Structures are given as structure tokens and as C-alpha cells.
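Q: I have two molecules that I believe assemble together. Could you output C-alpha cells for the complex as a whole instead of separate predictions?
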Amino acid sequence: MKPPRFQYHVPESLDEALGLLAELGADAKPLAGGQSLVPLLNMRLARPGHLLDLNRVAELDYLTERDGGLALGAMTRQRAVERSALIRDRCPLLAQAIRYVGHLPIRTRGTIGGSVAHADPAAELPGVLAALDGRITLQSRSSTRVLDPADFFLGVLASAATPEELVTEIWLPAVPERTGQVWLEVARRHGDYALVGLGASVTLDGDGTISEARLALIGVGPVPVRARRAEERLRGEWPATSLFREAGRLVSAEIQPETDVHATSEYRRRVAAVLTERALAEATRQITRETVE
Amino acid sequence: MSAEVGAGSAQRRAIRVTVNGVVYERVVEPRLLLSDFLRHELGLTGTHVGCEHGVCGACTVLVNGEPARSCLMLAVQADGLAIETVESLAPDEERLHPLQQAFWDRHGLQCGFCTPGLLMLLKSFLAENPSPSEEEVREAISGNLCRCTGYQNIVAAALEAARLLREPVAG
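A: Yes, here they are, computed for all two components at once.
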């Protein structure tokens, strides 16, 4: 199996990369970690005239604190995120979710920006962005745009990025005080695409009631889905098993998963309800444990 | 930085890649996969090619010490990098690397097709995590398919290799 012929470009700076993209337009395909694009090339499902290899653009490889959160350069390897003490400390949801991205030898090459730009509906990073209301930066030679996940992810493998734009950075807010974050998913094997994945973030008020609840699901629609009705139901309430069960029922009612060869729609709804209940219980436990300590 | 040689559809590039400590200079087409470069250009056929789209893990090699699928990298991307393949493991023709010895002793292979990928993955994994639990080993090898062993003996071999590497036998 061989990739089709293409013209190969290796820019060494972001300016050079954006200049090439502006020049070559839709006939150029940016190559980040290659863990999704190279299979498509090998199977000749993608036949770009030009391949723009971003692996020498060192300025896009960073992981730093900024504006009360974390800024991650698009070419940061997933494995670097997995190893980062800063991520574990400031964004536990991402630290947990990243371990579900492919397998170990995928994450050593796979990048943050590549996964986001690919916009796979079962991918974890888009789910983390949706759960935490993160932001995605798109740059072209002439413009810079910062988008919310809802404006960036448009459909299956479809994003708001134009052919002249590169995803250059994602930003995630740091975990607030008295907050528990949990990522859970169900797949046939560890590392396979999720049948259902769920990111939950729960914040408790001083009096112990839920002041903020965020729930985002992957694998149940063309883009990551926020379970707004369940979130609304949780706010202002005391954490309780019965409440979490009800939130699970609301989640399974408000998502619209499709049936495919991997699982039926009914099964995905059921899994979503169970994961919701478990994630809310675990997120709450995390906060209580911290308070006791 | 690879240099362009020629132009048009046959655009080729000069690259310099260190494989198992030996520096190789070659001129290759940009679409040549690293897996095919190792096997066809360098004759290092220990790296096996299974699915050729990043699912089976048979072609796993180390790229600057990190495990990666050589079928998902272009040879031109390895320009200036250090690659390690299964041929680098055994110290000589008489002796096996502790990982290979453990696979031998624990019957961690039958047909052997997946073995080079598993050995390279485990070399890196055990260097980072010298005392893994069985569960950690299973998670680490989850991206490497074996259709013979049912994984039981591979896991046993990995745990045995971890022991051998922690406490090298004297002599």
C-alpha cells in the first residue's frame, strides 16, 4: 500500500506554513502527527496535490498557562500532554481523556491540533473542549479567529476551518476550586473509538450544593454534544444518587445517537445514562475527598 | 533538513537517518513510508508490515526513543532522527536481549509476525515503567494485534522481561 504522489513541503516556521497554505489553497493538506491522515493516504482515500508537513514548526509545540487556563500549541504531542504534571494539576479532565486517545504508539506522534482539526465525532479532545467551553484558534496568513467548540465543530470530520487556515492553538480553562472532573468511556478495547464517551465537571458551592455542572458526550452525534437539560437539572441541587440517576435519564433522552455496526442507538443511550450517573458520583467524591484532606 | 532533488512528479529528497546507530544517506520519494524505507532501501526486514494503516502495530519502531508506527511516517520525516528497529536488540548472534529471552522462555510468540512490534513497544514501555502491573502491560500493548497467542503469554513474557531488566543476571 502506497500513498499517491504529492508535492512535499516542510515549512520551518508558522509564517512560512501559512504563506504556503495561502498560495496552494484547497489542494494542500497539512500533515500534523499523521495518525489519521497517513492511513487515508495509504488507502488513497485522500489525494492531496501538496502535503504540508508541520512537524518542523517548533513554535507550535508548547504547553503553557495563560489567561486563567492552559494554552496548547497545535503540534504538541498527545504523549507530552499525558506526561505533563501541569495538565494533571490544572486540567484533570484532559489528563484523564488523553489516555483514551488511540494507543501509546499513536499518542507519541498524534498531536493536539491534528485531533481537533480532524473533528472525528468519537474523538476525545473535541469532547474535552466542549465540556469545558474551551477555545480553538485558527490562523491564516491574513487573519486570526478564536472559536467556541460549537462554532468550530460543524459535522462528521467537518470544521469551520477554511483551506487557508490552520488550527494553531487550543485553550482550556483551569479547573476551578471545589471541582471534580471525570472522563469515562466505553469501547470494545482500550484505545478503540468510543461507543460513548463522557466528560463531566462538577463544582460545589460552599454549602455543598452544585453550583456548576457540565456534561459533554462523544460518539452519540456528528459533533460533541452538551447535555444542557441534565446540566440545568443539577444546578442548585444537593448531590445525591437519585439526582444523578435522574440526570442520566435526562442525558439519554436528550441525545440522539445513531445505530451503526458498532452499537445500536438504544444501547448508546443506555450507556450514556450509566456513564453520567457514575461520572457525577465520582466527580462529587473527588471534591469531598479533597475537603476531608 | 532534507534537500530537494529534481522537480515535478518525481520530486525526490536527500535524507540522512540514523538507524540502529548507523547513519544512512539516501535519496527517496516523499511518499515512501518509513516502514518500506527500512525494509526495501536498508534491507532491515525485521520490521514487519501488517495492515499498513496504523491498526495492527506490527511495524512499531522507536523514533528518537519513542514507539511509533513506521507505516504512518514518511521516510522523509525521519530525516535527522534516530530510529531503532528489532535488529538493534540482540547484543550478538549468540545472545538474546532480555526481552527476546523472556518471549522465548514464556512462549510469547507462535508465528512471530507481531513480535518485532511488540518487542520495540515493550522496550520503550519498560524503560519508562520498569515495574508495571499486569493491567498496565495490557493497556500498553493494546495497540499491537496478535492472532496466535491470546496475549496471555505475551503479558507473561513482558512481566518476566521487566524482572530480568530490573535484576540483570551477573555475567
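A: One point stands out. The two ends of chain A are 56 Å apart (CA to CA).
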